[in-house]
Amino acid sequence: MTRRTPLYVVLIAAVCVFSGLFPGQDPTPREVTEFGRLPVLEEGRVKPFDSVARSTLLVIQGRQRVYAPDGAELTPDQWLLDVLFAPEKADSYRTFVIDNTDVLELIGKNDENLAIHYEGAAKQAMASLGFLPSRQRRMSFSEIAPYLSKIEAQEKLAEPVEAQARTQFQSAVVQLYGSLSRYVRLRRAIEPEGSNDFLGDLLKLQETLPDGIEAVRAKEAGKPHDEAKAAALIDLGQRFMAMDEGTNLLAVPPDDAEADPNAWHNVGHALLLGLGREEVNPVALAYAGMGFAWRRHQPEQFSHILSLYQASLDKRFPAQVRKARVESLFNQVEPFYGCMLVYLAAFFLAAVSWLKWPEPARLSAWGLVALAWVIATAGIATRMWLEGRPPVTNLYSSALFIGWGSVALCLVLEAVYKNAIGSAAAGMIGFATLLIAHHLALAGDTLEMMRAVLDSNFWLGTHVVVVTTGYASTFLAGMLAILYVLRGAFTRTLDRATADALAGMVYGIVCFATLFSFVGTVLGGIWADQSWGRFWGWDPKENGALIIVIWNALILHARWGGMIRQRGLMCLAIFGNVVTSWSWFGTNMLGIGLHSYGFTQAAFWWLTAFIASQLALIGVCLMPPGKWRSFRA
Amino acid sequence: MNVRIRELRDFFVSLKLTVALLALSIVLVFWATLDQVHLGVWAVQQKFFHAFFVWTKAGGLLLPVFPGGYLIGGLLLVNLVSAHVYRFHLGWRKSGIWITHAGLILLLVGELVSGLVQKDFQMQLEENETRNYSESLRLNELAIVDTTDPKTDRVVAIPESLLARGVVVQNPALPFRVVPKGYYANSMVGLKSQLPSAPPSPATQGMGAMVAAVPMEVSYQEDARNNPTAFVELVGPDGSLGTWIVSTLLGNPQPFTYAGRTFKIVLRPTRAYHPFSLTLEKFSHDIYPGTDIPKNFSSKVRINTPEGGEGRDVLIYMNNPLRYSGLTFYQSGFQGEHTTILQVVHNPSWLVPYIACAAISLGLCIQFLIHLVGFVGKRSRP
């Protein structure tokens, strides 16, 4: 242990997090990564193919990694290229997660044929202990395909039922159907269903187009014509139409004639438009060419076509290309994942500092928190730049921001108190909020578009940011109180000075939380008054925020009135966690009101578990002082 | 001082009462939020907040089980005011608390007032349509329109509540009395042949021979509208003119003549007439490309005044309402491609929460800054 140890710790952590930026050890071929950076328009915004791949994979299988049947690991971009250009290969990858046993039964699966048999005693032992999965959770499209009509029939029955009223089977079947159709729409995004040589078809079309159009026109006018040429063109047109209807991935940028930079088309639509102008859309040709090269494993040709397309994009859409590149780089670095691990390490180092090596461990923890916070700041700033919006726009970003705000306060606390408590709390909250954010990302694109009601950068920037800061500080007060209880009741490390310092911190943070949650709630009222004509409407989310304000006010008044002392303050602050978590997630679970934008069923279980854990901690806190290890004489 | 009075005073000025009331209000708000799933937000406000007690049915008896919004809010007001009168002294160290609490009093009183005086209406406009009235979202009226003069209609409007209570109405503008004969707060209306189970209808005139009404359970859901039906007999000096069936489901007014004058009778959403009219010039609504997420909707309207002095165009869109002549018009929704729905609100006390909240925010900032300065001062001393 030297004076420089904390510096080394932080440096090593920084290197680990940023290693994703350097392509050196990345085995992915360059052209694949470059393809992933191409811009497309999906779900209302321009994004890179890479984001389409990642968010689709998160939705359909809950993780970004894909394994081929031979065990090879694929990046999301490689998987997407197979889906687009070699669907028969992609169909064999196990990418659909199914946990519901009734749905598994529907597709002919049972414990017997799902079990994974490991070779070797060590692996078998690991599997029986739960370290390795003992059964398959993910199915391939080919496995599911024979049962598609059964799944569709069940989905038709379940779909009209309201989301909250569905049984587990109904939810699972609706979800599976959603995943399957998402996959199928992606599979038909660029090449038509059942096409063996789309490039050949398009090249032939290019040659025969003028004759074909002449034949079709003559046929329509009832004049003599070449029936074969007309039929061939009509048949191709019908296939383009099927492509147009079968996807929502708009992969072709607007051409020179179109003024609106958002007027992207899907490949089928672009080809149909081209028929009228007697030309084959060059972007569609480029995609077909890349598909041809990809199927034949010809990386040079693939790169060549890709670079030609890139050059034309660079010239016409420099801003969109730049954003797409930055976004795919952002996806690749996964800054929040790195932050999560750094926060965890910071928490452990802070805890170590109370037992051994107080100064080096405390400084290392503080350094790690600062590092993670800086990375999180950069990550949030990048998202803001990509979206052109204030930091909080949906549940996912509220989780990021709550973590960010709490950690910022912790950094200040640690700078003032220098007792590692701020770092420990920062580690806990930072880790927990990023974990929550990670699970919220499973719902799809986290940079989704804002509905018309919410589309106001001014109010998103003021009301939402301030009220989220209020949530963050209420959570922080609760976390500090938890540290007090855990250290005081179960260890001997909570001396009088530390206990008093913690009480001071909790009190200060509750004051801060009262101010921010109140101002934030009021700004929300003003927004509501501006857009709906009522200052207060007793909407569930409004009520949730109101309860947080009242709860903080209650803590302050109880303290000023001498009704609670140190332990009482801690009990109330821990209950603040319950209040805040209910307001954050519980109100959305009611499925009513203007703010119910994020109903998540799995979250219900976690919320219940969290509330139970907080009540248990309050129970511990209520033990008489004689039972606390730190307070025993 | 009398011991009793002192005890009473101590009770009302105590911080314990404050904390207890805050705790009760949390329970009230929480309970009300959960109950919204069943009752809808409007009924919940009436049951929990605009009431002194929350009443629950237990074995056929209606029992007050919990203090309601008026009681808790009122006690908080008393607690706050009396505590300031007895306990606090003017001084800069308490200035933040003073300002915060003054703002809080203003907020509570302001919410009470706006709950009492605020009126909500809706105006539905098709493109190129002009209207000089808004319609209530919840209230209905029986309108009897004298259309004898082709230039002006004379309207007598009778609130639905009078029909419900069976009050006989005699109005100098009408040559007959209006006698309610029956009333369903919510109903279904159809041809008699389609509703064989309908109770016998006393209606003899107008549509009465053809249609029947079946009473339905009253809905409290926020988005559901109740459709009342009433049977009204019109009685002139020489005897009855007959009984009409009126319902918000019947649409068009039913015409009739009496004593050489022509009338129309209709049950319709209560109207509030404005001294100006609005014309919808264009309604637009966009979605994000490749999705069905609405991006924006907006209504371009023209304000027309009788003097013709105004005649200006305004664009109403999300978060950008039109405030005009004491009313506020919000973009609330749309129907089809060319019909806009504007929410029309009359709330003379709309500024109060702004002032109150500015005061509270200022007060909290001052108070916590005073704490912070004290804290930093204490730590910097050796």
Task: Summarize this entry quickly.
The complex is a heterodimer of chains A (633) and B (382). Chain A has 633 residues and is mainly alpha-helical.
Question: What key attributes describe this structure?
Answer:
heterodimer; A: 633 residues; mainly alpha; two-stranded antiparallel ribbon; two-stranded antiparallel sheet; B: 382 residues; alpha+beta; 3 domains; four-stranded antiparallel sheet; 7 helices; 32% helix
Account of the protein in words:
The complex is a heterodimer of chains A (633) and B (382). By secondary structure, chain A is mainly α. Among the domains of chain A are: 1-28 and 334-437, no CATH class; 198-297, no CATH class; 450-633, no CATH class. Helix content of chain A is 69%, strand content 3%. Chain A has helices at 5-18, 30-36, 49-61, 76-85, 87-90, 101-106, 111-114, 121-129, 141-144, 148-158, 168-187, 198-220, 227-246, 267-276, 282-295, 299-316, 318-333, 335-355, 358-387, 395-417, 421-440, 457-490, 496-532, 540-560, 566-589, 601-621; strands at 39-42, 45-48, 66-67, 73-74, 94-97, 138-140. In chain A, the strands form 3 sheets. Chain A has a two-stranded antiparallel ribbon. Chain A has a two-stranded antiparallel ribbon with strand order 3-4. In chain A, helix 24 runs antiparallel to helix 25. The longest helix of chain A is centred in the C-terminal third of the chain and has 37 residues, at 496-532. The model of chain A is unreliable at 593-599 (pLDDT under 50). Chain B is α+β, with helices and mostly antiparallel strands. Chain B folds into 3 domains: 3-117 and 351-380, no CATH class; 121-130 and 273-346, no CATH class; 137-271, no CATH class. Chain B contains 7 helices and 18 strands. In chain B, strands 3, 4, 5, 12, 13, 14, 15, 16, 17 and 18 form a 10-stranded antiparallel sheet that branches. In chain B, strands 6-7-10-11 form a 4-stranded antiparallel sheet. In chain B, a hairpin with a 2-residue loop joins strand 1 and strand 2. In chain B, helix 2 runs antiparallel to helix 3, helix 2 runs antiparallel to helix 4 (69-86) and helix 5 packs antiparallel against helix 7 (352-380). The interface between A and B is large, with 62 and 56 residues.
